[in-house]
Amino acid sequence: MGETSADTGEHLTSGAATAAAEGDGAAPSPRELRRQRRIDMSREQILDTAERLFAERGYHDTSLKDVASECEFSVGSIYTFFESKDLLYEQVLMRHSIGIESIQNLVPDDVPADERLARLAEIQIEHALAHPAWGVLSAEISRMARSRGAVIPEAWFHYNERVLAYLTEVIGRGQEAGTVRPGSPVALARLYFAVVTSFILVTTVAESSGADGWPTDADEFIEFVSDTFSTRPRKNAD
């Protein structure tokens, strides 16, 4: 799951000009607006291309030169928008992530915790399938985060800490209400996170590659999540 936080650490050439125009209280000129649109389109093209290459090749085997070549830009043009490959990678990860506030709006606190966990898994899967390259990339780096020594972008690391804290709170409240199975809320939150991200990884890989034999039945997986974490039988269970 990811957070819509595309402003983190961005380095855009348009910032100074826009700020100056706003500071003077004057509306940007048509020429400035056209320039801004070109900048925004170029930045999105870079992010789209980098997302695909990082997903296909991995971080270490993707260079800024590769991204620039695919975009038909110079490497210097990439540096105009992103100060480093690390920052580009971080922004690729963060731009499609789902914010905690958005999750709380989609799955309100008054929904029973076991149902919230099932619905949250469904939202994450649907979101990853809507952005398959990002789904592969985000699930893979979430898996890597559990490996000692893995290098994880700071913004993504802190985002996942917030996600785990949110899941821990949901599970703890569910246990108090008797709707979520007993056990350490922290351990169960980590188990939930690992299971969902693993399913997203194999599902998005299968969807993007057309591979057969991968477990891609989302409805069946949601039932598994419900059976695993809920203390209540499913309404449609036999």
UniProtKB/TrEMBL annotation:
Composition skew (Low complexity), residue ranges: 15-27
Domain HTH tetR-type: residue ranges: 40-100
Keyword Transcription annotated: yes
InterPro entries in UniProt: Homeodomain-like_sf, HTH-type_TetR-like_transc_reg, HTH_TetR, Tet_transcr_reg_TetR-rel_C_sf
DNA-binding feature ranges: 63-82
Domain of life where this protein originates: Bacteria
Gene3D superfamilies xrefs: Tetracycline Repressor, domain 2
Protein name: TetR/AcrR family transcriptional regulator
A molecular function (GO) term: transcription cis-regulatory region binding
Chain segments carrying region Disordered: 1-40
UniProt KW keywords: DNA-binding, Transcription, Transcription regulation
